[in-house]
Structures are given as C-alpha cells and as structure tokens.
Specification:
Distance between the termini: 45 Å
Order of helices and strands: EHEEEEHHEHHEHEHEHEH
Number of helices: 9
Number of strands: 10
Strand order of the largest sheet: 2-7-1-8-9-10
Strand content: 15-25%
Length: about 230
C-alpha cells in the first residue's frame, strides 16, 4: 500500500480541500483509496458515532465503507487535553491509531490527513510529525500564497518532520494570486529547491471559495429556516 501524510503550515490553509481533490483523483485513476484522520480536533456525531468532521465529510462525499472508529481513531473533544495532562487518559492512543491504520492494508493508496501544522497534537504525544513517523508515511505540506511566508513556514514544518525521520515529499501552495504575480510558481519552486523541497503545484486564489454558503451561515448563527429555498 502506498500512503501519503497531508499536513499544513497552519489552520485554513486548504488542507481539507486538497485532500478532497487528491482522494477524487486517486479514485478516478481506479485506485482503491482509503482515508484516515488519525487525530481530529473537531468532533461531531454522525449516525450516533463520534468522529472528526473531516472524516465525516470524506465518508459522505465518497461513500467510503470504513467505520468511523477506523477513519477517525482519535478525536479530541473539549477538555480532553486537560484530562490527558492530568493523567486521567490511560488508553494507548498511538496503539489505537496503529490498529486503525492496519485496516487499510488491502488498499492501493491511503491518504492520511493531519491536523494543522507539524507540531499540532504534541500536547497528547501525537503531533503530526510523530504520527507520520509512526506510520512510515512521507509528508506533503500545504501552505497559503505569497513568497516569503509560505517558504518560511514550509521549511519550518519540514524541519520538524525531519526531526522525526519523516521524508517531506513536497509542498503545495494554495490561494496563489497567479494573474497578479507573473512567474510566482517558478519563484516558489526555486525558493523551495534551495531547501531540498519539491514544489508539487500551486492552487489559484478564487474569492468565491472563501465566501460562506447560506448553510454555513445558518449553522454559525444557529438559525431556523422559515422558508425553504
């Protein structure tokens, strides 16, 4: 089984959007594709089961067969980190992730989605770098647009992965204003090459993708629909 650990330089960098595209691309190529979010920070309840919201999204969009206990083995609800630090969590969380990971042995490819930057999860001993190293998966880092900022952030995160023996297969830079910055892709590629990190691609900035849908607004304000449509 081939696998990839998808990380980011922080929140809202486009990691989940990239994950959707990758899973769709793998499946269109006829590959038996699995998805796992080893450590999740946003727990929701779906069909009576707790899981990270990204696992719920992937299972819903692609009709994946695995149970949430496999796709989202460790999720951190409110108050969990305090309980962990206080010594009240005695379960082997790493063991739970390894057990779930083994369930994908018959797949052609497995996409492992991390949470935030390389160090997120360190508070419970399961940072992205630690988990990627534990599962033996190379990492791809997603960052936002710009020049200096994405390169700085990608290099910083890559160093943390390297400290845990994780190979960084490359980087993807999201929300790039390509029309306003001619040659930006080549600049980013050359800048990252100096640090031995391949640029796998850039995703253009599209304002409409940053606008909330009515459904998101409804959820955010806890509104009530009084007229459908």
């Amino acid at each position: 089984m081939r696998q990839l650990y998808l990380a980011a330089t922080g929140q809202n960098r486009g990691k989940t959007t990239t994950a959707l595209g990758l899973v769709d691309g793998f499946r269109r190529r006829g590959l038996h594709t699995g998805f796992i979010k080893p450590v999740g920070q946003r727990t929701v309840i779906d069909d009576g089961e707790p899981a990270d919201e990204d696992a719920v999204l992937m299972r819903t969009v692609f009709g994946l067969d695995e149970a949430y206990s496999v796709m989202s083995p460790v999720h951190i609800p409110r108050g969990f980190t305090k309980s962990y630090i206080a010594g009240k969590v005695v379960e082997d969380l790493g063991g739970r992730i390894r057990d779930a990971h083994r369930r994908f042995g018959d797949h052609d490819v497995l996409l492992i989605e991390g949470t935030g930057h390389a160090g997120v999860g360190a508070v419970i001993g399961l940072s992205n770098a630690v988990v990627a190293g534990m599962l033996g998966a190379p990492a791809v880092i997603v960052s936002e647009g710009g020049v200096g900022r994405p390169i700085d952030e990608i290099v910083l995160n890559a160093s943390h992965f390297a400290a845990h023996g994780v190979r960084v297969a490359g980087a993807i830079v999201n929300k790039v204003r390509i029309a306003e910055q001619p040659g930006i892709e080549d600049t980013l590629r050359r800048g990252l090459e100096r640090h031995g990190i391949p640029l796998l691609g850039v995703l253009p900035y599209r304002p409409i993708l940053s606008n909330p849908t009515l459904g998101m607004i409804l959820e955010g304000v806890r509104g009530r629909v009084i007229s459908p449509g």
